[in-house]
Amino acid sequence: MTSSPSRRAILRGKVNARPHPRPIGALAPMAFEDACSQCGDCARACPEEIILRDAEGFPVLDARTGACTFCGACTEACETGALIAGQPFPWRAAAEPNCLSLKGVQCRACEDQCDASAIRFRLMPGGSAQPLFDDAACTGCGACVAPCPAGAIALHPFNPTEPAQC
Ligand code: SF4
Ligand code: SF4
Ligand code: SF4
């Protein structure tokens, strides 16, 4: 398969050390790394161009470049079985302390982006508002990540047995 210049640039691009999700359909971490050949077919198949490589060369979704539509093109493109349909996608969005609302600045940019209505704001003493992310409603699409003017939202591994983050 040939790559356009923009695709090659994406495939060469590296993401930082923050944990990023594998493309949807990824096997459990060790099984995924055993199965993945780092061929890049998933990245080339993604219409949103959000699949980059991590420092070791494995594919990751970087929501800072766009949102996943869960179209499944990446999973369908994977011929090694590293991505297979029906796997859970255990990633959820959460805001970090540099969130503007937590600092008293009026901002609802994330809420406006969330089609799943997974973000709501709770007024705090002093007039600031705290964004609350509903892990049960969040799909992990990442649509709220890039629009955040403070870069305060990231996707985090989600374990439903742990207390909810906000
Ligand atoms: S599901 Fe679709 S939009 Fe999401 S990473 Fe895979 S190819 Fe891209
Ligand atoms: S298509 Fe499959 S084997 Fe190739 S890089 Fe993506 S996950 Fe790895
Ligand atoms: S990741 Fe997607 S579903 Fe989850 S809060 Fe952000 S926009 Fe909403």
From TrEMBL:
It is found in: Cytoplasm. [4Fe-4S] cluster 1 binds at C36, C39, C42, C46. SUPFAM superfamilies: 4Fe-4S ferredoxins. [4Fe-4S] cluster 2 binds at C68, C71, C74, C78. [4Fe-4S] cluster 3 binds at C138, C141, C144, C148. The keyword Chaperone does not apply. Keywords: 4Fe-4S, Cytoplasm, Iron, Iron-sulfur, Metal-binding, Repeat. InterPro entries: 4Fe4S_Fe-S-bd, 4Fe4S_Fe_S_CS, Fe-S_Ferredoxin, NapF. Belongs to the NapF family. Could be involved in the maturation of NapA, the catalytic subunit of the periplasmic nitrate reductase, before its export into the periplasm. Interacts with the cytoplasmic NapA precursor. This is Ferredoxin-type protein NapF. It comes from Sedimentimonas flavescens.
